[in-house]
């Protein structure tokens, strides 16, 4: 026994745990798609200049040098802002971020990646320290929670502004009120935010703990021990049971099968749930027992980590577009605040310490920027999330990110995975076509009858001899000619389907069998009920399962033989002479078998119609029927055969062996030998298999299309399958033309193909990941411009990195909101890159669900999630945000009028608790009840998805609607203050009580004016707030003086209970609100919004 046996990494299942680092996956995968994708960007294309073929994308062409093609797209997208405009519009944030990144890079240098040596079963021998094998989706830890939350809050201009204002109250010369007037609201906002973040962080911690606590069997010198997933170390030997998830990167060392084979699923890598055959390392598979793994002193030498298909860019922190828009509006309010303060100081004549007066005016008018805006919106978002999770029509929905529910109401692009998202990845055999007759789901019993009769007649003719695999044709001479012909053709077609595949039947071990026996074939149950099929394609499993249903069953298979069972119970044995697996280039697979009972040699082949149409004998029905099945959404396969004599096969085998041993052009020579057999083959049948769609996928996609949302399908599956699913799911409507972007590898080919694509109008695009990569390298802007005009786009053979890249490009080139939805680990990068990520809990695990902002159980739930909850969340947040700003503007207007009357003195109108109470108990409940408002019922929103289209234009919250609310605030504030001064001139000492009472009543009426659908809680909030104000008059009389308490009188209960006070306050309130009611009524009559047309 040698001291060391080097084991090279195999991308498979079972034993030694390698590094949990995500970058290690490409060590297992070899020089695959990701590595090639990266390296090709470093190559210079042979076509240096294409000026003679200008690519016209608009009215004008462009002719640039080679270097210009790399800088042109980004130069066309945006025009950078300069100077003061750039600094005010987030330039200061950019500078701060750049400085922080620079400091982080200085303090935390990137670790150099090196090749690794991993000893089997000896983690202590590792030369370097590896990270823990744990999943962590948390944003903070114990030390970074408070600093992190504070940073996330004060990076917004609104909160930073109020922090500065609150700190200014510690300066005696600037103090204009009580400290709690400023610090209490700020502290409440921070407390609510920290509580919400703490709850979200605790939920993330619980989800991570659940995943990291999954138990696995670890093999040690002393036997098996149970370890948590997070405790697995590099070098451990892990026993992975059937249907158990792989906890880390692993090398496949042993299996219970004698041949060392095992079927695995790579859904966490590429999203495909198909079973793939892998073979264990031969030297460890041959060991007598598991314990011998510790005696061979073997190690795995792994190359340094390469580009990983699981890696993604992005953070867990999400900021919605509504938050950014409100942040811009608060900056506009700040400019208005400064301008108003400067005007006041100017009208004063800059007398005395004018700069101090300027700052005092800034403090007096600080309510123009309402601090309660953030806390109201955050609480509203929490309510929206709760409504989503409690909706009985979309059970199982989970809101994992509570900061962006309104993003669901402004989506323009939805990027979806295929396998497990649109489809169930469960294939069902639907149709068999023989040229003259077609069999569907309702006539399969006829095929079963033909098969049973064929083999029963064959058995009776054979007598005591072993049954022949082909029924003698002359034995059916008594039957009608048509029946004999059809029966024979059905028999040959079914036999070809059950033999031409790469499916292996698998049998479960008997219950109760335990121990460490390596090979347990004797303990297996070979009954039909215990049989399952495993293959690299679900299509093949569906075909073999169908042959079993009609009477011809595959009962066993190994590398050299397979056995079939007839309806009568006889077992037919076939020797596998050659197997030609399916490839994406050939689009077909073949097999040569010998019937052991008759020694007949037959070459069977099946494949796509485009590949098989030139191989089979002439016919006049194949092309037409393939088109008919494709229009029904079926995946078609053409099946053919060719009988070979012993001499023909021996000649082929010698040429085939010689070609495989060739040192030059081996692939081409092997293909040429195989093609020598693929001539004039007998066409047997055409099969149609349906990839079952998720429930209600078609109406959901139609709803999204009517809502103005463009759906892009990004999948790792092959082009034919992706195109078929796109058509069957109605992602591409039946009447829609489809342009299949041909494979391009150079700039010149991409140039020509883009020009050809540009000449197409209103057609869906289907493109492969490789071609997409070339187009983005040279013509990024031009390709995105064309693709965004398509009603639907299908990208096949996409790696996870490419999926995330497409999302990012859409955001950059269109500026629209994107949403990504998927169900597998390979969709995480796409989900994280999108503005809004939705995960589906399905067969591919929970990685996508855990990493997404929202989690659903079925694709059809997307419709209600967007049309109802997304739409309501956006419209409610827009109304709530603008109303809160109106509440601050109206009181600031009254303060400006009051200061003007008092010769522009910087004296506050309302003191202490009145200011705090105005924004909380007096108006908070009615204003916050706007989160329950809705313009149309959920059923109406689902029935008319066109209502959603209006939201993408952002009209519910824009500078236009903002200016309207500003004008309303100025009008109402002026009416309230001047009305109080004019009507109560003789009782001027009571102006504070008068104006404040009218202000509270106006706010309550304005809420009623804004509401479109009343809820009983809204009525309760209105009367509760009014009751709180009336009852508080008993102990707040000291705050109703003019200016400071020492300036004015206290409230006079005798005065406020008079009829004169009541009707005059009512008159002021009516004048401030009635014109707005009239304008609203006239607008709904003359130019009603779309929802009003439906409700009427």
Automatic annotation (TrEMBL):
<feature type="domain" description="P-type ATPase N-terminal">
    <location>
        <begin position="127"/>
        <end position="183"/>
    </location>
</feature>
<dbReference type="GO" id="GO:0005768">
    <property type="term" value="C:endosome"/>
</dbReference>
<feature type="binding site">
    <location>
        <position position="823"/>
    </location>
    <ligand>
        <name>Mg(2+)</name>
    </ligand>
</feature>
<feature type="transmembrane region" description="Helical">
    <location>
        <begin position="180"/>
        <end position="199"/>
    </location>
</feature>
<dbReference type="InterPro" id="IPR023298">
    <property type="entry name" value="ATPase_P-typ_TM_dom_sf"/>
</dbReference>
<feature type="binding site">
    <location>
        <position position="716"/>
    </location>
    <ligand>
        <name>ATP</name>
    </ligand>
</feature>
<feature type="domain" description="P-type ATPase C-terminal">
    <location>
        <begin position="850"/>
        <end position="1088"/>
    </location>
</feature>
<feature type="region of interest" description="Disordered">
    <location>
        <begin position="454"/>
        <end position="485"/>
    </location>
</feature>
<keyword id="KW-0547">Nucleotide-binding</keyword>
<dbReference type="InterPro" id="IPR001757">
    <property type="entry name" value="P_typ_ATPase"/>
</dbReference>
<keyword id="KW-1278">Translocase</keyword>
<keyword id="KW-1133">Transmembrane helix</keyword>
<feature type="binding site">
    <location>
        <position position="827"/>
    </location>
    <ligand>
        <name>Mg(2+)</name>
    </ligand>
</feature>
<dbReference type="Pfam" id="PF16209">
    <property type="entry name" value="PhoLip_ATPase_N"/>
</dbReference>
<dbReference type="GO" id="GO:0140326">
    <property type="term" value="F:ATPase-coupled intramembrane lipid transporter activity"/>
</dbReference>
<feature type="binding site">
    <location>
        <position position="635"/>
    </location>
    <ligand>
        <name>ATP</name>
    </ligand>
</feature>
<feature type="binding site">
    <location>
        <position position="417"/>
    </location>
    <ligand>
        <name>Mg(2+)</name>
    </ligand>
</feature>
<dbReference type="InterPro" id="IPR036412">
    <property type="entry name" value="HAD-like_sf"/>
</dbReference>
<dbReference type="InterPro" id="IPR018303">
    <property type="entry name" value="ATPase_P-typ_P_site"/>
</dbReference>
<feature type="binding site">
    <location>
        <position position="717"/>
    </location>
    <ligand>
        <name>ATP</name>
    </ligand>
</feature>
<feature type="binding site">
    <location>
        <position position="827"/>
    </location>
    <ligand>
        <name>ATP</name>
    </ligand>
</feature>
<feature type="transmembrane region" description="Helical">
    <location>
        <begin position="962"/>
        <end position="982"/>
    </location>
</feature>
<feature type="binding site">
    <location>
        <position position="803"/>
    </location>
    <ligand>
        <name>ATP</name>
    </ligand>
</feature>
<keyword id="KW-0067">ATP-binding</keyword>
<feature type="binding site">
    <location>
        <position position="606"/>
    </location>
    <ligand>
        <name>ATP</name>
    </ligand>
</feature>
<keyword id="KW-0813">Transport</keyword>
<feature type="binding site">
    <location>
        <position position="419"/>
    </location>
    <ligand>
        <name>ATP</name>
    </ligand>
</feature>
<feature type="binding site">
    <location>
        <position position="417"/>
    </location>
    <ligand>
        <name>ATP</name>
    </ligand>
</feature>
<keyword id="KW-0472">Membrane</keyword>
<feature type="binding site">
    <location>
        <position position="826"/>
    </location>
    <ligand>
        <name>ATP</name>
    </ligand>
</feature>
<dbReference type="InterPro" id="IPR023299">
    <property type="entry name" value="ATPase_P-typ_cyto_dom_N"/>
</dbReference>
<dbReference type="InterPro" id="IPR023214">
    <property type="entry name" value="HAD_sf"/>
</dbReference>
<feature type="binding site">
    <location>
        <position position="797"/>
    </location>
    <ligand>
        <name>ATP</name>
    </ligand>
</feature>
<feature type="transmembrane region" description="Helical">
    <location>
        <begin position="988"/>
        <end position="1009"/>
    </location>
</feature>
<comment type="similarity">
    <text>Belongs to the cation transport ATPase (P-type) (TC 3.A.3) family. Type IV subfamily.</text>
</comment>
<feature type="binding site">
    <location>
        <position position="582"/>
    </location>
    <ligand>
        <name>ATP</name>
    </ligand>
</feature>
<feature type="transmembrane region" description="Helical">
    <location>
        <begin position="332"/>
        <end position="352"/>
    </location>
</feature>
<dbReference type="InterPro" id="IPR006539">
    <property type="entry name" value="P-type_ATPase_IV"/>
</dbReference>
<dbReference type="GO" id="GO:0006897">
    <property type="term" value="P:endocytosis"/>
</dbReference>
<dbReference type="InterPro" id="IPR032631">
    <property type="entry name" value="P-type_ATPase_N"/>
</dbReference>
<protein>
    <recommendedName>
        <fullName>Phospholipid-transporting ATPase</fullName>
        <ecNumber>7.6.2.1</ecNumber>
    </recommendedName>
</protein>
<feature type="binding site">
    <location>
        <position position="418"/>
    </location>
    <ligand>
        <name>ATP</name>
    </ligand>
</feature>
